[in-house]
Design goal:
single chain; alpha/beta; three-stranded parallel sheet; Rossmann fold
Amino acid sequence: MILLDGKALSKERNLLLKQKIEASVSKHQRSPMLAIILVGDNPASLSYVKGKKRACDLVGIKHDMHHLDETVTQEALEALILSLNQNELVDGILLQLPIPKHLDDDKLIDMISKDKDADGFHVINQGYLYQKKKTIYPATPKGIMTMLKAYDINLLGMNAVVIGRSNIVGFPVARLLMDQGATITVCHSKTKDIALYTKQADIIVVAAGKPHILTKDMVKKGAIVVDVGVNRVDGKLIGDADFSDLKDVCSYLTPVPGGVGPMTIHSLLENTYELYLKHIK
């Protein structure tokens, strides 16, 4: 089994990105800027934001943190997003999810300018993705595709199963896999007998948010498994795939942590830099 080491790959790619940013800053006399909006004190969100800020510092992207009380109103948050849209020094905007239930996350995401959509969640950017037009891709699917390419995994003709159908991971990664020539099946919580599909798969992307939903008996010998899940169980982070169970069956396998997560953050940095290049021309 070959470990799909997102931690090592992201470090390598972040160093290259840092060099590109340094050259651009030298030429244009302005650093890329990412505005981060965090609502409330969700421990996981606080941890994720800390990691994103640290990664920004590493590559030379400035960040502007807006940490709001969990009681913030929809109107106040909309006003903040509109002000960031109008700020010419802000290249990317990130709304850290999840947000409190009294806020309309779909509306807020689509209020972010598509040209400052660092997460790639805006409805127009997602529409471009589905039409195979150049756009800002959602960070996790982009990170997955970057990892597969870096490990020279040719998807042409593969049977691919995606477990999960969110607009953040499941649907966009299915589209990107299809664009690379894979044949796609999308499973979800209502699918009867998921193993019926996963046993036929050459590559499985599991993003269900359920600990160890994918086990050895559901995977054929030599399959590739990409685990997007991050679940905290008994104080430990574990994936949606049972790593210890699958490591002797898979040809390639991502760890949790250290697999998709670091590549997601790297893709967010790349997206911010791509948006910056649009703004300085």
